[in-house]
Amino acid sequence: MTSSLLLLAQVTAAAAPEHASSGFTGQVQQIAGQFGIKGPLLLAQIVNFAIVAFLLWRFAFKPVMATITERQEKIAAGLKYAEEMKAKLNAAQQSSDAQIREAQVKGQQLIAEAQKSAKAFLEKQQQEAVEQSNALIGKARSAIELEKQKMLAEARTEIARLVVATTQRVLAKDLSDFERARYNESAAKELSNV
């Protein structure tokens, strides 16, 4: 900055009416002349540079800096939101894991209850089947006993008839209905004692 002020001072001195070319000012003018620096042109360039720098600052750098600041704020907000979502996701995952464990426990309880119910139902069905088979066996035995009694009664009657028929042939005489009934009764009594 000091060198530019020094150079500006030299240029303005060169632009001023030439007094004496002696001393420090003269040397500056001589050096500026060697480099092709002309005071009014340098002043115009400095003013132009200041205007361009101001316009760039005002319309380029300031909006760019505002955009950069805005983006940094958005990025920070996004990172904060991502951390919040990560925390919520972890909480939701833990809640989900707890619900899954609870559902597994309930499922196991339901399975155990279903197995107990099935076992009790199976035992009940087996007991009913045994009772039904015993009842059927009892009915079958009763039916067999009745059939046996009926067959014995029929056999006795048939044997008595055969005995009477045989006796009638043996005696070779005709028996009356009364005598036949009497022989039948006596034969039946003897057979029932057997």
Blueprint (SSEs and pairs):
Layout (H helix, E strand, L loop, with lengths): L1 H14 L7 H13 L3 H133 L5 H17 L1
Helix pairs in contact: 1-2, 1-3, 3-4
Helicity range = over 70%
Estimate the global geometry from the Cα principal axes. rod-shaped
The biggest sheet, with number of strands, parallel, antiparallel or mixed sense and barrel status, is: none
- Unreliable segments (pLDDT under 50, ≥5 consecutive)? 17-21
- Provide mean pLDDT, rounded: 82
Task: Tell me the total number of β-strands.
Answer: 0
Rg of Cα set: 68 Å
How many H/I helices? 4
The SSE order reads HHHH
Cα distance spanning the termini? 155 Å
Broad structural category: mainly alpha
| Beta-strand proportion | under 5%
Task: Write a brief structural summary.
This protein has 194 residues and is an all-alpha fold. It has a domain at 144-193. It is 91% helix and 0% strand.
What does this protein structure show overall?
By secondary structure, the protein is mainly alpha-helical. It has a domain of 50 residues. It contains four helices and no strands. The chain starts with a helix and ends with a helix. About 3% of the residues have low confidence.
